[in-house]
Amino acid sequence: MKTKAGFICLTLLLVFLSLSGVSAMDNSADDIIANDADASVDPANIDVQHSYSPDYVIKDQYFKIIVNVTNKGQIAYSNLSFNYDVPQGLTPIIWPSEYVNSTWTLDSLLPGESDTLMIVCTPTISNATVTSKFSYGDETLSTLDIKISPVADLAIDETRVYEDGLLYWIIYVVNNGPDDALNTIVFNLPNYMAYKTDIGEVVGNQWVIGDLKNASDAILILLCEPFDEYSYNFLVLSDIFDPDMSNNNVSGSFSNSQPGNSASIKVSDANATGNPLALLLLTLFM
């Protein structure tokens, strides 16, 4: 009887040891997958959503690059590393601590779990498209074309000269860039008898300049009969985004009872040191 009982106990002990051995092996395999995920990641199980905000990006203004990754597989990953190089032409301003030297490291990414990388940048270039690349190892998981839109800062000013009972009205426009101002037009011109310009043409109360290149200017001289009293508000616009609208119009009023009333031209142009062309055109006109 004792022999039979001893045999049963020995059998149970062997079964227990056998089960313990299998469990230990399974746990070891799980640890390999969990702790050395980089060696076993299937990129097909990583879903990537890649975008930037706002949609309209211009030079010297902040915007966000956003990369969202989701583990759509059945394996839990840890110590997972992705590569993300910020393209040339963009300067990173803010980024998370997990992003170091173009490498984004995740402590873990469970099945169905998502995580997000966000980098705040500012463009140093204008009117260009740059491409960012998000990759795992040697495999590219996502690319993103980032369009940097053109900008053109237009400025306008005016001055008036009375000569022999006539009013010579000089209007000056400059494009401070950094890109060309396409289809540039000055609105709300006064009534005039004749005009002279170095670019474009006058149609009714509009001066249609056309395309005004970066760092270039345009001058219009209107010959008018004197006004008893007159209020003006000249406005310049183009088809290209203008980041500073504060210098896009010039306004005021004057009376013919003060024929010496005129203003000197002062236009917001960092590169301007004078405009001999304005004096030349005025001389030719008169």
Helices and strands in order:
Elements: H1 2-35, E1 46-53, E2 63-71, E3 77-85, E4 90-94, E5 99-100, E6 103-109, E7 114-123, E8 128-136, E9 139-148, E10 152-163, E11 166-178, E12 181-187, E13 194-197, E14 201-203, E15 206-212, E16 217-224, E17 229-237, E18 249-255, H2 276-285
Descriptive notes:
With 286 residues, the chain is of the alpha+beta class. The protein has helices at residues 2-35, 276-285; strands spanning 46-53, 63-71, 77-85, 90-94, 99-100, 103-109, 114-123, 128-136, 139-148, 152-163, 166-178, 181-187, 194-197, 201-203, 206-212, 217-224, 229-237, 249-255. 15% of the residues lie in helices and 49% in strands.
Order of helices and strands: HEEEEEEEEEEEEEEEEEEH
Q: Average pLDDT across residues?
A: 82
> Main β-sheet, in a few words?
5 strands, antiparallel
Category by helix and strand content: alpha+beta
Helix content: 10-25%
The number of helical segments is 2
Task: Report Rg.
Answer: 36 Å
Please report which band the strand proportion falls in: under 5%, 5-15%, 15-25%, 25-35%, 35-45% or over 45%: over 45%
What overall geometry do the principal axes of the alpha carbons give? rod-shaped
Number of DSSP strand runs = 18
Q: Span between N and C termini?
A: 135 Å
Sequence stretches where pLDDT stays below 50 over 5 or more residues: 7-39, 268-274
Sheet with most strands: strand arrangement = 5-6-3-8-9
